[in-house]
Specification:
Largest sheet: none
Number of domains: 2
Number of strands: 0
Structural class: mainly alpha
Strand content: under 5%
Radius of gyration: 23 Å
Oligomer: single chain
């Protein structure tokens, strides 16, 4: 029995060394597939082995055994985050498709907003449909198509983080080593980029002017349709793809 003690002591030393290594060494960041000039990682969301270990037994067990964890609700937080989400496309076409998926989701939310506007005589700007389109806060977790923000911010981006998926999709049609500014897709996105067409809808609704709200929505819809046509998506907002 006494001869087994050196072996046990050595095992304990190895275990302690492993724990120290796990709690002090950062895990490599995940590649988001987003251009470097637009990729922002907040310290609070960086993944480290210390964070993994502090996540509790359930997280550790799921990590070790590959079991699935229940994703948190897609709520919005006020913490802020990058306007771009985690994808690792293998090619330009895959990257372009990821932008298209996000644009389609954004347009779907815009169409839902339009249905509420056209069918209501009393517009509630605090309803779920309005929040899903206009709220500026980041989500706690990206949604199914990779959006970390609500529809409008995901589409147009922010001053701090650059253009959203609309700009990225428009620029993805450029040829290698060619500036994208003269592309029809980029030019079509210009009227949308500032967000003024969309914020005019919100401003009119907050004033209680239903007619002006509908007028502002129609004006934004025309510009959005023109953009969709240039990025090879259905320009008709009633297309089933936006359901």
């Amino acid at each position: 029995m006494g001869s087994a003690w050196p072996t046990r002591i050595l095992s304990v030393i190895k275990t302690v060394s492993l724990i120290l290594f796990l709690t002090t060494t950062p895990v490599a960041s995940y590649n988001t597939g987003v251009p470097s000039q637009t990729k922002i990682v907040e310290p609070s969301t960086q993944l480290t082995r210390r964070n993994i270990l502090s996540g509790g037994t359930a997280f550790a067990a799921a990590t070790l055994w590959g079991t699935a964890l229940v994703a948190p609700a897609q709520a919005f937080s006020g913490s802020g985050s990058a306007a771009y989400s985690g994808r690792d496309p293998a090619s330009k076409s895959a990257l372009q498709k990821s932008y298209k998926d996000r644009v389609v989701a954004d347009v779907t939310d815009f169409r839902r907003l339009g249905k509420v506007i056209t069918s209501s005589s009393n517009i509630d700007t605090k309803s779920d449909v309005w929040v899903a389109f206009f709220i500026p806060f980041a989500r706690v977790k990206a949604d199914a198509v990779g959006r970390t923000y609500a529809a409008l911010i995901d589409l147009i981006g922010t001053k701090e983080e650059g253009g959203g998926c609309g700009r990225l999709l428009a620029a993805s049609f450029s040829k290698p080593n060619k500036p994208p500014d003269n592309l029809p897709s980029v030019k079509a996105f210009k009227p949308l980029e500032s967000g003024s067409l969309f914020y005019a809808i919100k401003a009119a609704a907050e004033q209680g002017d239903v007619a002006k709200t509908k007028e502002a929505y129609d004006k934004a819809a025309v510009a959005l349709s023109a953009f969709l046509k240039e990025v090879e998506l259905p320009p008709d907002l009633s297309d089933p793809i936006y359901n």
